[in-house]
Amino acid sequence: MYRALPYILLFIAATLLQAFFFDHLVLGPLCSPLVYIAPVILLPLDTRPIAMLGTGLLCGLTADYAMGIAGLNIVATLPIAFLRPNIVALLSMREDNRDEGIPSPERMGARLFWSYVVAMAALHHLLFFTLEALSWEMLPRTLLRILLSGAVTVAAVGLAERLLTAKLVRP
Amino acid sequence: MRKLLEFIRSTYVAVLFILIELLALNAYARSTAYTEARLLARSNRAIGGVQAFCTGIGRFFRLGRENRILTARVAALEEQLTAYTEAGGEQKLREAFAELGPSKYRMGVASVVGNTTNRLRNYITVNRGRGDDLLSGMALTTPEGAIVGYILDCSEHYAVAASILNTAFRASGMLAAGDYYGSIHWDGRSPRYVTLDELPKYAEPKVGDEVLTTGFEPYFPKGMRIGTVESFTLNEAQMTYTVRVKLAADLTALGHLVVIDNLDRSEIEQLQESEAIRDFEQQ
Q: Which of A151, B71, B131, B160 lies deepest, with the highest CB count within 10 Å?
């Protein structure tokens, strides 16, 4: 429960940033960061699967509402919420990851942390932009969008992690 | 019970994930005409591939049964031929055939690559098309001689047929025991039964009676099997029977089919649509 408030604040901040900043920020047609997934990526590693799924649904639903899209954000966010334990296990080469706490470079190691954030953002953006384009002819453009938007999202998640671990959780 | 609860507990998150994901995907697909068309086209292609794979496996396991049916059919025909030969001598038989002239029916074979039975309008797709001389209006039967549908349209390599399990399918049927006939249609309920309507009260059907095609439509030759009488009721006016017919063909397990082409079909259809008949109808 002690961790709930920072995450509620993170969710509100990420949603507001997405709706009022990143959705209107003109970074060119190839860059549309989707930072609202930050709470899903930064939830403590020991979060129960049902809570992960609920967070993914909430983030996707809110983003859908804010962007005026029916279902696409949920379709892209739910798999990363559901597959997160598997992604962490796959990257850390450990089947039973019993780590607790917020994913951070200090806790996981810098390499594992950034691999994890990149994998989560890549999977989400891959699903989102592929389903948005629905065309093989636009594949090179879609891949470029995934790359550029993903890079900004990863940076934003990294920044959120710093704020979360440095200011909000630590006494 | 405890094991069931444990199973539910261990899988409910995955089930919930799949369920929500499908709902969201459905909502997204239906949000615009573009997404609907693109996603449906892709899902149809994927489902078609899986269906073809499953059909191939199913067909492999049905090969033995189909072989037995074909062998039995060959044996029955051989028996008939021997009886004819013994009765009249081969020369007489040849003369009789020569007198009859060439048959107006041409047969071929095709394999089912798609078949639905759970909708109101069901269709059968076979792996032969225009390139194999298939045309709309040709009949499809099982190797045992039970009708299953008729071809509606063909592409170069495939043909789509209206299944007998299609509420728009119409044919006439008669009892093998008499010449009375009625209208065959499907009520959209069980894939095992069709209805023979408007059978005159003089037909006096009995449970187990065989129902055959009349040959009135240009699609099906006369005397092909439709099914057997399961039950019947006399209508309120006590004039006609409504007969529930158990289908001879198992539409849920189709493999190889016989395609029958009536060479006189176009001539009959042209005649039926002739100006003289139209003029007569307008009088």
A: B160
